[in-house]
Write a structure and sequence with these properties.
The protein has helices spanning 6-18, 22-28, 33-39, 44-65, 89-100, 120-140, 165-176; strands at residues 70-76, 79-86, 107-110, 113-114, 149-153, 156-163, 183-190. It is an alpha/beta fold. The protein has three domains: 1-39, no CATH class; 44-117, Histidine-containing Protein, Chain: A, CATH 3.30.1340.30; 120-190, Histidine-containing Protein, Chain: A, CATH 3.30.1340. The strands form two sheets. Strands 1, 2, 3 and 4 form a four-stranded mixed β-sheet that branches. It has a three-stranded mixed β-sheet with strand order 5-6-7. Mean pLDDT is 86; it is low at 15-35.
């Protein structure tokens, strides 16, 4: 029996976008990705490109380093944030070089820590912190939540997005005053 590889599956899932059905899909979907894309400041094409960068990067890292590293790849408007842990400075640099070779990557922010892989408990705590920050973004109502992407690694919150300077300041202030956050790093592109 033949199985479909990840690229084949990705192609099937992206087929509606490739044949031009994106506007209907985006408007016709009230929840999930379609609604998210419609409120995102990136174009639907850029959104898909970012997803592709993340998938290709994760695959390359896994093929080259396996479970010896714990790396998160986040692409927003083709700017790539690398977080996680690598065992040595050389491996950290090798990962950055590897990802720079992925098509359409404009710039890399390498925030990989030289350390052993974090525990499941630490990663669960990071997920909880991300949820707390998102909840505060929603309750504070200072900006549209879909304009800011949140990544948390080892209690450090990274904020990405295409935002105004005021939105960036509001997001950073809210995140920095959230329980459990050690530090906030802004990885924004500014509209003004």
């Amino acid at each position: 029996m033949k199985y479909l590889n990840p690229y084949g599956l990705s192609l099937i899932l992206l087929y509606p976008f490739l044949i031009g059905c994106v506007p209907m899909f985006t408007v016709g979907t009230a929840a999930g990705t379609g609604a998210y894309i419609s409120e995102d400041r990136r174009t639907s094409g850029m959104f898909i490109e970012d997803e592709g960068i993340e998938l290709k990067s994760a695959r390359r890292i896994h093929q080259q380093f396996g479970n010896n590293v714990h790396i998160n790849v986040t692409s927003y408007n083709r700017l790539v944030l690398l977080t996680g842990e690598a065992p040595t400075e050389a491996v950290k640099t090798d990962i950055e070089r590897l990802i720079m070779g992925v098509d359409n990557v404009r710039k890399i922010y390498n925030e990989i820590a030289v350390a052993g892989n974090t525990s499941l408990t630490s990663r669960s705590n990071d997920a909880l912190i991300t949820s707390k920050v998102k909840t505060r973004f929603l309750t504070e109502r200072k900006f549209q939540i879909n304009h800011v992407k949140i990544v948390t690694e080892n209690e450090v919150v990274y904020l990405l997005g295409v935002v105004t300077r005021q939105e960036a300041e509001n997001a950073a202030q809210i995140a920095s005053s959230t329980a459990g956050v050690k530090k906030v790093v802004k990885v924004f592109e500014y509209m003004n």
